[in-house]
Amino acid sequence: MPAVLAAAWSLLAAAFLAALALVPRLRRPGVVSGLLQDLVRYGKTKRGCGQRPGWLRLLQVPKRWFTHFYVVSVLWNGFLLIGLFQAEFLGGSLPSWIQYVHHSLGRDSQSEDTDSEHFSVLLVLLLLWLHSCRRLAECLWTSVFSNGVIHIVQYCFGLGYYVAVGSTVLCQVPTKVRNGKELSVHICWYHIVGVTMYFWASLHQHRCLVILANLRKSKSGKVISLSHSVPFGDWFERVSCPHYFAELLIYVSMAITLGFHNVTWWCVVMYVLFNQALAAVLCHEFYQKNFSSYPKHRKAFIPFVF
Ligand SMILES: NC(=O)c1ccc[n+]([C@@H]2O[C@H](COP(=O)([O-])OP(=O)(O)OC[C@H]3O[C@@H](n4cnc5c(N)ncnc54)[C@H](OP(=O)(O)O)[C@@H]3O)[C@@H](O)[C@H]2O)c1
Asked: pTM score > 0.85 for this model?
């Protein structure tokens, strides 16, 4: 059933696209729109919805718990990475339950030369793990969180997300076994392009998160405020949410590293595109509503486009 994963990610992408299209309607008062708003907004963009009923506030957890997503990701994707590395280079094998999932959801390779495909997947799993390590470090030591909240459903979704995304990467290893042959490393041009783009986007994402953190610190680095203000510098000069745009570029860089042709991964990219576009639109609205002098030329998400 190699198409199941692509279908699942497409469905998620479609759900976020629908939520994006519904944003103008969500502003109307009503119980249903209130419930939907509660599910799509988080952090500072939740503050603009006014006072929420007490029972809805029981279903919220601190936004700083984002940290837990990356703890789960570092552990789960680290475990998959070690397993795959052993299976590819040291003649080991993945645990039987993972092999079962892989054979059920993985894809058959059409190409003769599958060595580069095996290497691409290993590389993307490594990039995903490094991304999670950096994000965990940023949550722990860079970002300054306020008392913002997220819905418990968003929290559970976030916990499952990085397990699902790493498992999706693993399932891109062709199920056709290489008959115990050790993997020979084939570095292709698209590995170099993908990895270069990954580091470039990661660098900008980190810089933008540092800019956000510095808005709440004094020159000496002491936290002096937990309020939201207007960020300037780096890609913030072009868009309201450059860290979301960088996230999209990171996933595109992984699609490139997989050799451009991996349909399942492009479905993951579509999910990230619509998920981050929704968050960016709400954040852009927040800035425009709360800061009268907000730069007019700034787009929400994609420079010059959206
Ligand atoms: N792949 C995915 O599906 C996915 C989903 C969600 C997020 N992400 C990634 O995770 C990263 C963080 O996302 P996020 O939604 O948490 O970003 P965010 O809402 O912009 O928050 C990032 C940090 O900056 C603070 N902050 C935000 N705006 C600020 C302002 N105007 N003034 C001062 N401080 C401000 C936040 O504090 P408070 O919010 O605590 O006030 C938080 O500490 C992003 O790089 C994003 O791409 C990925």
From this structure: yes
